[in-house]
Inverse folding.
C-alpha cells in the first residue's frame, strides 16, 4: 500500500464557549472580520479552517506558512486526528507522528526518567523497545543527573531537549511538525538538526509549519500559504515565497 | 493500552504523595481517624452498639468516598488532561479508565481501615459476602461509563461540575451512610428518601452481602437497571460528543 494523505474540503469551527466575558465576545464580533460568526443559539464560532483541500504522496515535503493564528497548528492537529473536522474528509494511509507541542504529554511533577517511561507507554512500545528508547533519549538529551529530577526543576531549554529527544526517537511514515522543534541552545541545535534531518529524510511524507525561510527552503518542496484559515496560495517554494515575502 | 492506563493512574497517586513520609498511607490514616471519630460520636448519638456500628460506618464511608471520587473526578477527567488530549491522540476511554483505576488504588489503601474495624469489633462475615465482588464489578462498569458521560458534559458545561459536587454533598446526608436504613422503616413518609434514591440501591447492593450476609432481590434489580440506564445514556451522549470534546477543553 502506498502512503498517502488526502484532505478534501475540510472546515473546522472553533466554538468559543468559555471566552472570559461576553463583552469581549461582543467587541470581537463587532470589530473583526469575517472569521467570527455567530452560530446558532448566539454562540461565537471561530472559523479556524475553511475548505482546505490538498493531497500528498510519498516524497512530498509540504511547508505551511502564514502569520500567527493563520491556522497552521490547527491544520496540523486536524491532520493528526486530534480535532475532528465539522465538514470534509481526511484520508490517511500510513503511520502518523505529530510533533506539535514541546512538552506533549510530559508531566511536570514526574522525573525525566519517569516521563520517558510514560512516553514509551503512550507509544505502545514493548519492554525491549522501551529500554532501547530510554537509553537513546537519555544519551541524546544529555541531561545527565537531571534525568532523576522532576521536570518542574528543569530550565526551559532542558525541557525542550528532553521533549525533542523523545519526539525524534522514531522515524514515522508521515511526520507532522511544528516549528518549536528547532528551538534550543546553539550547541544543541547542530546536534538536533542532524537528528531531525535523518528523521525527515526517512519519513515518506512531511508536513512542517514554520516561520523560517531557510528551513522551509531546505526541507520542503511545496508550500501552502494559509491566511485567516483559508489557503491563499499553494505551489512551489519559489512561487509562494515570491508572493508571501515582502519584496 | 492497559499498561498506559495503569502507568497514568499510578503516577497520579505517586505524584499526589511525593515527598511525604507516609505516602498514600495518608489516605488510610485520615480515613481511619474520620471513621474512628464519627463512630464514637454517632454510635452514642444514635444509641447503636459500637460492635455493629463501627464496621457498618467504615464500610459505608469508604464505599461512599469511592463512589463520590469517581463521579467528581469523572467530571474533570477530560478537562484536567487537556494537555494530553491536545498533544497526542489516544482514545478518550483511557481517561475514563484512568479515573477508575486511580480511585480503585485509593480504595485499596482505604480497605485497611475496614479490615481493622472488622477485626477490632470481631465482626464475622460469611461466604455470602463474596457476592459483593459481583456488585463491585457492576460499580466499575457503571463508573467507567459515568466518567465518560460526566467528563463529556462537564467539558461542555463547566457549571455542571459544581452542580454535581453539591448534589453529592446532599446525597451524603440523605443516603444511609452515617445512619442505618432500618431507622427509617417505621415512618411511611420518610421511606421515600430511600425509594427514590439511586445511591441507596447502588450502595446497598455492595454493602448488604458483607454486612447482612443477604441481598434483597429488588435492590439487585433496581441497581442493575440504574447501571443499564447510565450505560445507555453515556453511550449515546459520548457517541454524539466525542468529536467535539477536543474543542471544548
Amino acid at each position: 500500500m502506498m502512503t498517502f494523505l488526502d484532505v478534501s474540503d475540510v472546515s473546522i469551527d472553533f466554538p468559543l464557549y468559555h471566552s472570559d466575558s461576553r463583552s469581549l465576545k461582543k467587541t470581537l464580533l463587532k470589530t473583526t472580520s469575517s472569521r467570527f460568526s455567530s452560530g446558532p443559539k448566539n454562540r461565537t464560532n471561530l472559523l479556524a479552517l475553511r475548505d482546505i483541500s490538498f493531497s500528498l504522496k510519498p516524497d512530498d515535503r509540504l511547508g505551511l506558512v502564514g502569520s500567527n493564528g493563520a491556522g497552521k497548528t490547527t491544520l496540523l492537529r486536524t491532520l493528526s486526528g486530534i480535532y475532528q473536522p465539522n465538514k470534509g474528509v481526511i484520508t490517511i494511509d500510513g503511520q502518523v507522528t505529530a510533533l506539535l507541542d514541546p512538552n506533549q504529554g510530559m508531566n511536570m511533577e514526574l522525573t525525566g526518567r519517569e516521563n520517558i517511561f510514560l512516553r514509551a507507554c503512550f507509544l505502545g512500545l514493548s519492554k525491549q523497545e522501551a529500554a532501547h528508547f530510554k537509553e537513546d533519549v537519555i544519551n541524546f538529551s544529555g541531561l545527565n543527573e537531571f534525568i532523576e529530577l522532576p521536570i518542574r526543576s528543569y530550565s526551559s531549554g532542558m525541557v525542550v531537549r528532553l521533549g525533542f529527544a523523545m519526539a525524534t526517537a522514531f522515524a514515522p511514515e508521515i511526520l507532522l511538525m511544528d516549528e518549536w522543534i528547532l528551538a534550543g541552545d546553539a550547541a544543541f541545535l547542530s546536534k538536533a538538526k542532524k537528528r531531525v534531518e535523518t528523521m525527515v529524510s526517512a519519513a515518506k511524507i512531511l508536513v512542517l509549519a514554520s516561520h523560517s525561510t531557510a528551513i522551509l527552503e531546505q526541507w520542503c518542496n511545496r508550500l501552502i500559504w494559509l491566511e485567516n484559515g483559508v489557503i491563499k496560495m499553494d505551489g512551489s517554494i519559489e512561487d509562494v515565497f515570491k508572493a508571501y515575502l515582502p519584496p | 493500552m492497559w499498561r498506559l492506563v495503569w502507568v497514568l493512574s499510578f503516577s497520579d497517586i505517586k505524584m499526589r504523595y511525593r515527598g511525604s513520609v507516609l505516602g498514600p498511607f495518608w489516605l488510610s490514616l485520615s480515613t481511619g481517624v474520620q471513621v474512628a471519630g464519627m463512630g464514637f460520636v454517632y454510635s452514642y448519638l444514635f444509641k447503636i452498639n459500637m460492635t455493629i456500628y463501627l464496621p457498618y460506618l467504615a464500610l459505608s464511608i469508604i464505599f461512599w468516598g469511592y463512589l463520590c471520587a469517581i463521579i467528581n473526578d469523572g467530571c474533570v477527567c477530560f478537562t484536567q488532561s487537556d494537555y494530553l488530549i491536545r498533544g497526542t491522540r489516544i482514545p478518550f476511554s483511557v481517561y475514563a479508565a484512568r479515573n477508575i483505576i486511580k480511585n480503585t488504588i485509593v480504595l485499596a489503601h482505604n480497605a485497611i481501615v475496614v479490615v481493622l474495624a472488622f477485626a477490632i469489633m470481631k465482626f464475622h462475615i460469611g461466604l455470602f459476602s463474596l457476592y459483593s465482588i459481583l456488585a463491585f464489578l457492576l460499580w466499575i462498569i457503571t463508573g467507567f461509563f459515568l466518567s465518560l458521560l460526566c467528563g463529556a458534559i462537564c467539558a461542555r458545561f463547566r457549571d455542571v461540575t459544581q452542580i454535581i459536587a453539591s448534589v453529592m454533598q446532599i446525597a451524603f446526608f440523605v443516603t444511609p451512610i452515617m445512619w442505618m436504613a432500618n431507622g427509617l422503616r417505621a415512618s411511611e413518609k420518610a421511606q421515600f428518601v430511600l425509594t427514590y434514591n439511586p445511591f441507596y440501591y447502588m450502595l446497598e447492593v455492595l454493602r448488604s452481602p458483607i454486612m447482612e450476609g443477604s441481598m434483597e432481590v429488588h435492590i439487585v434489580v433496581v441497581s442493575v437497571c440504574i447501571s443499564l440506564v447510565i450505560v445507555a445514556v453515556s453511550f449515546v451522549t459520548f457517541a454524539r460528543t466525542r468529536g467535539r470534546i477536543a474543542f471544548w477543553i
Q: What stands out?
A: Chain B touches chain A through 24 residues (CB under 8 Å). Residues 201 and 223 of chain B are 5 Å apart (CA to CA).
